[in-house]
Model the fold of this input.
Amino acid sequence: MSSSVLVRLTPFFLIAFLYAIPLYLIAHWGHRLWRRTGDSAFLWMRYALGIVPILLTVITVAIPFGMTGSNAVSNVIRALYPSIIPGTLGFIKIILVIVMLSKLGQGCVGFRELFQIRIPNQIPSDGLTSNDEGGLSS
Amino acid sequence: MNPANIAQNPVIQFFAWLNPIVISWIPLLYTLWLFQIWRRKRETCYIWLMAGLGLVPFFSTILRLIFTHFFVAAVASGNKIALGYVTTFSSGMFGIISYGCILMALANFAGGEVGFWDLFRRARGPEDEDLNEAG
Done:
């Protein structure tokens, strides 16, 4: 590998490395929170905001350097890779984040509740809704 | 077929514009969701997560939409270095702000039970074992 190629590649790998540090911290933090609290929202967070974005970053940086050919296929893949590969992993990430959000705050806001116009007032700190309280009292 | 021709292809340009428009709805959904959770729980961590997952990526996407014009122009002119740096700078700057907000959210989750420095302590401390037994 010539020195000019190394100079050209260094910023990309440096950025990938700098990106991977906070992603690893997020994944590690999510895992620790899950272990302490047992809340599965943090496990989903670990994969949605940590592991999948790390894979996404590595693949996004690695693919263009794997396609070094100058034929038509290589050019098309180089032109389209920012949409296809990050798009697929990004879609998986979006699904994981949506599952994570549905579990955050002990699942106090589900997906369908987002589209309800009237929103119930703040729930008590013990996590019980007004219906639960009624059920307990009866 | 060279990259300049591909970049000037109307289909590619259509998706280059459509992609950020479609994607910008996702951070808005996250923002709405986290705002609803915050309304019910009133915990700071959800505001941080709303910023990190919702508002910052939303404005990043909108700015990227505006800069798409310049990206396509850079590819068409064969200026790959400009393209690379503009892409990494625009994504990187907002990415770092976004990560900062998410890390702040994680520091505040569960009443700040796992602090930043706790991450570098031994993974299986006695505190963890107690909590696992209790859980």
About this structure: Helices of chain B lie at 3-8, 10-23, 25-41, 44-76, 80-108, 126-134.
